[in-house]
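The aim of this short unit is practical: by the end, you should be able to scan a pair of folded records and say something sensible about each. We start with the first protein, listed as its amino acid sequence and then its structure tokens.
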Amino acid sequence: MNNTILKLVATDLDGTFLKNDKSISKENLDALHLLGEKGILRVIATGRNLRKTLEVIDESIPFDYIVFSSGAGVYERKNNNLIFHQNLNQHLVQQITDFLIALDLNFHLFKPVPENHSCWYHRGSLTCPEFESYFDFHKYHSEPLSLDKKLDSEACQFLVVFPNNLERFLNLKQEIEQLFPGVKVVRTSSPLETGYIWMEIFHESVSKGNGVKFVCDSLQIEHEYTMGIGNDFNDLDLLEFTNYSYIVENGPPEMKEMFLLAASNEENAFALAVQKYL
């Protein structure tokens, strides 16, 4: 494989490039520098918003682009420039909000990119410990959704939290995508490792794969020269786009049947996968 030419490598952050304590191993950092020395673009593709990404990836960590919020935005590090964003329009946001409230669900609604570190929230009548844990972490950037007046804003995404019931998720996903053309529903495992399902609702064009494709198209990088590595269901579009695609050992079993296998995030998965091509 060391004869393979790479022009771009895209990696998920949490559970992939980062260790469980959110630190970066020396091996992964060295691999990043080596990619840069060889002129290979280094891209983050993460579900984190831009602010949260920059909390763990400071200027000393040499990534070239950040595809954040699962592809709702693309940020160029060299010029500190937001070069792409895609939000849900105001009308669609209000329709989905009314639908989720009618179902008595617990959810957050994130403000438009690039301010999507802030959000509105709605509590259903049933207490959800997972929702409350997430709320406690974001409460200083959150405000309640008003039931008395309509929203006058676009939004980046919805985050709906409910117990781990895959059948319920799939049924609700199908219903939402049928009722609201123009959106996509993504399943994400809880980063709090509590067994809950997180349902994310985006504009239909938003995905990590499309975010990386935007970078490739902008720089005229052919698909055949791309590599990706991830760890969860929200990396599916990324790994389906990149030519050489890896799922880490700590990823879902069903995804391990679809992609090349890498070590776990605790065992320098990024560095070991990249070294096969250098």
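Turning to the second protein, read its sequence before its tokens, just as you did above.
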Amino acid sequence: MRIALMTRNANLYSHKRLVEAAEARGHEIEPIDYLRCYMNITSHRPELRFMGERLTGFDAVIPRIAASRTFYGLAVLRQFEMMGVWPVNESVAIGRSRDKLRSMQLLARDGIGLPVTAFAHDTKQTDEVIKIAGGAPVVVKLLEGTQGIGVVLGETHNSAKSVVEAFRGANINILVQEFIKEAGGTDIRAFVIGGKVIAAMERKGAADDFRSNLHRGGSARSIRITPEERSTAIRAAKSMGLNVAGVDMLRANHGAVVMEVNSSPGIEGIESATGIDVAAKIIDFMEKNQKPGRTKTRGKG
């Protein structure tokens, strides 16, 4: 296969491992900075260019789009799809997962366990929103946040109300969620490829931080997840339509609840914690499923 790797930084661990894994299996893989791509969207003859050259002859594309660059990154990925290039994760599926509100609504529709979550536009409803989420302490999340940035714990009703009103006063959309105290600052990242959990790790937050993101100083270890947790992760990835996903869950008293479904999950943490060659498993999935023009949505939606 000739593979396009959509990335802004080819030197990141995850991207270097994908290149190594692809080349080790005899494939040609080319990192492409999607922000430097431009396109001809003429009907019937979609075209993509990079550094003055037409991007042609690719069999598959691995999108590794930064959360802050979702809009343009998805435009480039849709162009690949319209050109008949098979994507590991489709543009529509990535768009679903990147919209925290939409993803929560889809997960709820499919009966997947979630923390109680509330959303409102009018700050006059703040007291009621906090009450819906179970009362303080509550977690306040920016819809556009990632890697634990823009996640605040409102420990009392008044502090939570102040945070909500401050964000809304700046016209920033937020979710208010139930705080799962029994999780104890730990969560589970289940790595799903092709409808199977191929690796799982438990992440623990840094001292005095309720967030467990590794980017924020957390630690990780390999764990064996329960059948319920495995099923929840697989169903969550399916709800988004993602072939490759990192599903983040908390262990609540009433079972596993999904916090987020990540469409560009990091590989370093999960490989280090479990010793599993995740990059090779992604390439293996591509080998078994890639077909020209097999994109379900063909850039639509």
